[in-house]
Task: structure prediction
Amino acid sequence: MSLDPQPLAPALEAAEAAGRTTVRLDLDGVRGKTELMRRCGDALRLPEWVGGNWDALADALRDLSWLPSSGGGWLVAVTSWRGFADARPGEWETLVEVLEEAVGFWRERAGGPELVVLLAEAGRPGPVTGAPPRTPRLKRRRG
Result:
């Protein structure tokens, strides 16, 4: 599913009004996996048990028990992501895969909260990541 681009602030306000917890994951200046994992940890307030690897991030995004929600789920707005995507296309693709899998996981929980991810660039939001993963991936990721 994708939506026409819209300004980020109204999207965040609408999500909060609908009872979603909003998180802004700013990737400005991120050019490597270590910094990416730190930013994810900070923005999502990940517990200390979450390691700095893809599998740990994927597992954490299927839990979210530590991230408050008033029952409406969560909206994660990923901002300033193009620089990272250009600098590290393989790692960007893995991050997108992890996010899509998490969105799919929460969507499958009928009647429960959902996770929505919005890719936004300054002044140019992109589509909402809300579709099931392109292809089911059950493999474990390295590192």
User: Anything to note?
Assistant: Strands lie at 21-26, 74-79, 115-121, 124-129.
